[in-house]
Design a protein that fits this description.
two-stranded parallel sheet, single chain, 9-stranded mixed beta sheet, 2 domains, L,D-transpeptidase catalytic domain-like, alpha/beta, disordered N terminus, 186 residues
């Protein structure tokens, strides 16, 4: 009888009041872990070293090294309805890129109309310090791997489809990869 009462109290939310430690543990488990920076990880892949694999579900970008190793970077990915998946190649690289919001974004956020002709690169620019432009069969996909002026977005689904990285990490990746690098977005 006491067990049934205990389970009923937990299910009704009274358990949180009776057991405050339980409520705090549940709250902490729902909070996203703070990103701690790039790390070397074991990553078994048939892809050649130098390939980039982006696992949008894990909010991670893997730069494949040799012998089952990769560098894992935390990323922000596209919000629902703004994501893209496929295989592309880096077709262009830019330092401190100019940002021009697409017409569809300006329709959603009219305050961005002032940037219809572009926003110069710099620390306030949403593309951050570097941009890697993804191309498919020689055509720009309009998706990018780029830096961010919102580092708190790493680990979330926050962008309009592009892959965001910390500025210092996208700069490191930019220096590692040549134009033509294969990118797989899952």
């Amino acid at each position: 009888m006491h067990r049934r009462l205990f389970l009923t109290a937990l299910a009704s939310g009274l358990g949180a009041a009776a057991f405050p430690g339980l409520a705090e543990a549940a709250k902490q488990s729902r909070q996203r872990q703070r990103y701690q920076g790039a790390e070397y990880v074991y990553f078994d892949s048939y892809e050649d070293p130098g390939t980039i694999i982006i696992d949008t579900g894990k909010r991670a970008l893997y730069y494949i090294l040799s012998d089952g190793e990769a560098i894992r970077y935390g990323v922000a990915v596209g919000k629902d309805g703004f994501s893209w998946a496929g295989i592309a190649k880096i077709g262009r690289k830019t330092e401190w890129p100019r940002w021009t919001p697409p017409t569809s974004m300006i329709k959603r956020k009219p305050e961005l109309a002032k940037f219809a002709n572009g926003m110069p690169g710099g620390p306030d620019n949403p593309l951050g310090a570097r941009a890697l432009y993804l191309f498919d069969n020689g055509r720009d996909t309009l998706f990018r791997i780029h830096g961010t002026n919102e580092p708190q977005s790493i680990g979330t689904a926050a962008s309009s489809g592009c892959i965001r990285m910390l500025n210092e990490e996208v700069t490191e990746l930019y220096d590692r990869v040549p134009i033509g690098t294969k990118v797989i977005v899952l």
